[in-house]
Amino acid sequence: MLHQLPDFCIGIADLAAAFLLLYGLHRMASPVTAPSGILVAGIGMAVAILASFLGAFGVTAAARHLLPENIGLALLALVLGGGIAWFAGRRVAMTAMPQMVAIYNGMGGGAAGAIAAVELFSRHATGAIALAVTLLGALIGAISFSGSIIAWAKLQEVLKNPLRFSGQRIVNAAVFAVTVALGIYLLVLDRGGVLPQSLIIGFFALAMLAGILLTLPIGGADMPVIISIYNAFTGLAVGLEGFVLQNPALMIAGMVVGAAGLMLTLVMAKAMNRSVRNVVFSNFGEPAKAGRSKITGELKPTDAADAGVFMRYAAKVIIVPGYGLAAAQGQQKLYEFVKLLQSQGVNVRFAIHPVAGRMPGQMDVLLAEAGVPYDMIFQLDDINDDFAATDVAMVIGANDVVNPAARTDKSSPIYGMPILNVDKAKQVYVLKRGTGKGYAGIQNELFYSPNCNMVYGDAAASLAKMIEAVRGLGKAAA
Hints:
single chain; alpha/beta; Rossmann fold; globular
């Protein structure tokens, strides 16, 4: 019978899932193999789900009468969740990808918190260590769940401005301290029986409030960091609950996600010249202080066609994509223009800042979607010294990651952040929708530099004009 399936079948499934997840992550390390890595990891997750269903048949005889109902609910959740994810994943626009990642990450944290809730309410977790791990997983999972929802709301512009008030850090610390104290009290109160439900509900409510309060003051420019932090939190919560359930697949998947999220957080923090402690416990992304140095110079608009012709006769061009390119869905037009320049002998490369866009890696994905070869894409450390010897740098929708104030203005909120040295190129063109400020809410000194011209308008429309102008040169020559 099915409920007599040997345990080693479940163990083999767990081992296969762990291998596939790790191998998939390994392949994601390279842009060339990343698509297949995602597929492999997805298969690993499917195997892990299969192992969970196999494990359901190993329940005790006393609980076996609930098996049909539980399996039915699990299948219903699988069909609904999988269906919604498939539909949303196929329809989501590139501009909405960051908020989709945020909300899905929150669902992972919520799932870990739900597992912890079941363990706490039913008191399956026996022993002080198991209870402590369950409570810790519940705390981290609930924070990741509520915090990710706020991050989604910010990215979706449901919440448009950071919420900050006097004494906010004290309030945040107090809520977190009370939550931890309640968890410790539940641990001390444990006598092997069922814990008070009101205290468990209060613990989860406070933990979710802590996640909300932690995320509300964070500015939009720092979303890549907070997404990676909550990604690490979700992985850690899943791993802890896997330990409680003695489920190897959950433990391995959680540890892999947690470790990857932690490494990504460190990379993001370094790219913004902040410590992780400062990211988590400070109101990073605060607006510029009053009295900051005044920007001199003036904005110099130019026509897109003129900019395109100028680049046609350049020897070296570096392109810096930003969120404005994603918003305009102009990546296909951009690569069409690049290929046109290359056909005329122009050396064209792309420069990517680690925190460009609204989530880690968004610009790399955007260019890959357009078919840009990976050997044309360079990260900040690999290309930054080349701007000084570059004829033209074209910035498309990026702002804070190319702002020279990060090097010169100590009152700026981005001071000390490594930036792309676009201002050192001989000529700079900035494709921008308007004169608005960047996501950090500050003016960009680059736009007022003597060697910079502004090309206003939708990025895709501006690139189309550049293509037409360069092609017109060829027709005129013929």
